[in-house]
């Protein structure tokens, strides 16, 4: 089902304070639309064309009550006026690229800068601030498409992206990405939903139990840029190879935690990139809701909402405080174009990029 809201807000304000010499695209006003997809059991998502964002995700809790487990706003307009990544499709490059620079085939590219001296989540006008075309393929499936033009936030090539959301009969949210380009470029799309499986964002996610099938992570400098090293999680607060309550060690005196103000790190999954094998899980004892993560991606950025500060009023007028949401952004490594030892994120003409992530919900 599609709903449309017409707005009169000029979104060029997103770039007005951060003008760069690179070719960021001004965001033209378009009608805001909302689409829903659901399965026969009642699990449902709502997606807006602004950033192909998931604005609601309803799953049953242990009492059979359908519960919205993602942060966001009651009004679609708020997604355009508040500069957040709630529920968004991120691109072209999820996470950070150091100083907004990378070289490809001997040519250096300068991206828009929007995070200190670095480029974060695609730059000033990344995909999360762009309008997608959305088609209702079936009652349980939405297809979101976007053309990112050559020079968009400094990235080379005309990039055609398709994101497909499917709500399966197994109470899974499947997110599948497909992309092509007419010039060599780099690409690392992801979804930036903030999960709170309690359904009550006045509560933190510190009681949630996290599992990650990851022996290693990528340490960062003070700007959260990878150093290029690969480190073990063994005997550190980043070891979630056994299900562990998030709040147990989040404030431990450990340099990577001190730098990030909590968890905001890239964990490297063990084994092959097989979507049929669970890579992680999140469980909320209060609601009984459990979410299992499957992905073709080699890593995940686990971010515990450390920069939420109460200034954003979300659903139901609740002020989103620190650590009231957790993101599990399946991805390639941050700053990969500047680290030859990291898995490549280069996409070339004639190739088709594909990536898939599934969040499966159940109750315990």
Structure description:
The chain has helices at 13-16, 76-81, 255-260; strands at 2-5, 32-38, 44-48, 53-60, 66-68, 89-90, 96-97, 101-104, 107-110, 119-120, 133-138, 141-148, 159-167, 172-181, 185-186, 190-191, 209-212, 216-217, 231-232, 244-245, 264-268, 278-283, 289-295, 299-303, 327-331, 346-347, 353-363. By secondary structure, the protein is mostly beta strands. The chain has a single domain (2-363), classed as Beta-galactosidase, Chain A, domain 5 (Distorted Sandwich). The chain has a 9-stranded antiparallel beta sheet, with no helix packed on it. It has a 5-stranded antiparallel beta sheet with strand order 1-2-3-4-5, with no helix packed on it. A 5-stranded antiparallel beta sheet has the order 19-18-21-24-25. A hairpin with a 2-residue loop joins strand 8 (101-104) and strand 9 (107-110). The model is unreliable at 6-21 (pLDDT under 50).
Keywords, please?
Beta-galactosidase, Chain A, domain 5, 9-stranded antiparallel sheet, mainly beta, 364 residues
How are the SSEs placed, and which strands pair?
Elements: E1 2-5, H1 13-16, E2 32-38, E3 44-48, E4 53-60, E5 66-68, H2 76-81, E6 89-90, E7 96-97, E8 101-104, E9 107-110, E10 119-120, E11 133-138, E12 141-148, E13 159-167, E14 172-181, E15 185-186, E16 190-191, E17 209-212, E18 216-217, E19 231-232, E20 244-245, H3 255-260, E21 264-268, E22 278-283, E23 289-295, E24 299-303, E25 327-331, E26 346-347, E27 353-363
Antiparallel strand pairs: 1-2, 2-3, 3-4, 4-5, 6-16, 7-10, 8-9, 11-12, 12-13, 13-14, 14-27, 15-26, 17-20, 17-22, 18-19, 18-21, 21-24, 22-23, 23-27, 24-25
